[in-house]
C-alpha cells in the first residue's frame, strides 16, 4: 500500500523506496550516497514489476500480468451503463475498504433480498420484504444475468471477476407530474486487497431526486441558507448532521 511521493514517483510504504513509471528504482533512503550502496538504485534487482494499466470512465484498471501487454490492449474494460453519461441522471461514486473477504462481498452485492432488513429505514423497510422470484436470463464463464418481475423490477448482472451491476426500475405516480419510471443503477467494482479485506468502488446513478445527490452542485449549502431561518431547532440539527454526512461522501468521490 504505497503512495505517490513528492517527486511523482511510486513510494513503498514499508521502506520508502521510490520508483518511476517504468518500474525503475529512483531512491533508496537507506543506501549510502556513495559506493556500492549508491549503485544499488540502478540495479535491475531493485526495480518494481510493471503491469499494463488503463484509465476508463475515471477508473484505473490493472492487468496483473507483466507479460500480458498485447492481451490487455485487446481486451475492453467493463463499462458503466450509458445512463451515467445521460444528463437526466445524477451520479455519485464512493470507495470503501471493507474488512471481509471478496467472496462474502460478492455474495452481498448479488443478493437483493437482504436490503429490506440490513438497510432498514435507509433504502429498505422490514415490512416491505416479499418473495423475489428471479429468472436466469444468461450465464457462462463471463458471469450471469437475471431479473425478477413486478414492481420494482430488479436486473442483476455479474461480470467476472469483480463487476456487479444492479438496475432497479420503479413505476410510481406523483400528485403533480403523474406516472413516472424511476431508474437506479448501482454498479460496484470489488477488488480483493488482502486476505479478509476487499476494496469496493460503487458508482450509482438515478433519474429522480437529483438535488439530493452529493457532489459539485453543493445543493445542501443552498438548502441550508434558504431554510435556516424557517426550520424548527430540532429539525435544523438533523439537517446539519445530514449536511456533514454529505460532505463525507463527497470526499470519497
From TrEMBL:
Gene Ontology cellular component terms for the protein in this record: chloroplast thylakoid
SUPFAM superfamilies recorded: Bet v1-like (SSF55961), ISP domain (SSF50022)
One Gene Ontology term of the molecular function aspect: 2 iron, 2 sulfur cluster binding
Rieske domain ranges (all copies): 1-62
Record field: transmembrane: 217-239
PROSITE patterns recorded: RIESKE (PS51296)
Signal peptide segment: none
Record's keyword annotation contains Plastid: yes
Keyword Cytoplasm in record: no
Pfam families to which the protein is assigned, alphabetical: PaO (PF08417), Rieske (PF00355)
UniProt xrefs under InterPro entries: Cholesterol_7-desaturase, PaO, Rieske_2Fe-2S, Rieske_2Fe-2S_sf
Alphabetically ordered keywords of this record: 2Fe-2S, Chloroplast, Iron, Iron-sulfur, Membrane, Metal-binding, Plastid, Transit peptide, Transmembrane, Transmembrane helix
Entry's localization field: Plastid, Chloroplast
Annotated protein name in UniProt: Rieske domain-containing protein
Amino acid at each position: 500500500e504505497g503512495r505517490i511521493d513528492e517527486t511523482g514517483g511510486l513510494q513503498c510504504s514499508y521502506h520508502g523506496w521510490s520508483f518511476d513509471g517504468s518500474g525503475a528504482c529512483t531512491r533508496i533512503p537507506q543506501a549510502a550516497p556513495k559506493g556500492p550502496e549508491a549503485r544499488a538504485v540502478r540495479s535491475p534487482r531493485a526495480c518494481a514489476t510493471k503491469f499494463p494499466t488503463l484509465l476508463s470512465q475515471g477508473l484505473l484498471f490493472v492487468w496483473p500480468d507483466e507479460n500480458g501487454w498485447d492481451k490487455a490492449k485487446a481486451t475492453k474494460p467493463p463499462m458503466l451503463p450509458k445512463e451515467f453519461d445521460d444528463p437526466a441522471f445524477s451520479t455519485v461514486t464512493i470507495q470503501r475498504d471493507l474488512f471481509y473477504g471478496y467472496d462474502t462481498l460478492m455474495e452481498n452485492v448479488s443478493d437483493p433480498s437482504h436490503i429490506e432488513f440490513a438497510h432498514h429505514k435507509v433504502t429498505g423497510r422490514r415490512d416491505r420484504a416479499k418473495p423475489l422470484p428471479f429468472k436466469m436470463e444468461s450465464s457462462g464463464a463471463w458471469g450471469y444475468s437475471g431479473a425478477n418481475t413486478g414492481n420494482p423490477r430488479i436486473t442483476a448482472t455479474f461480470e467476472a471477476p469483480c463487476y456487479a451491476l444492479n438496475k432497479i426500475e420503479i413505476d410510481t405516480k406523483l400528485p403533480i407530474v403523474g406516472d413516472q419510471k424511476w431508474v437506479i443503477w448501482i454498479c460496484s467494482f470489488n477488488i480483493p486487497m488482502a486476505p479478509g479485506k476487499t476494496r469496493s468502488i460503487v458508482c450509482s446513478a438515478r433519474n429522480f431526486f437529483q438535488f439530493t445527490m452529493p457532489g459539485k452542485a453543493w445543493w445542501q449549502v443552498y438548502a441550508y441558507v434558504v431554510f435556516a431561518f424557517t426550520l424548527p431547532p430540532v429539525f435544523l440539527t438533523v439537517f446539519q448532521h445530514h449536511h456533514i454526512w454529505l460532505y463525507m461522501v463527497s470526499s470519497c468521490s
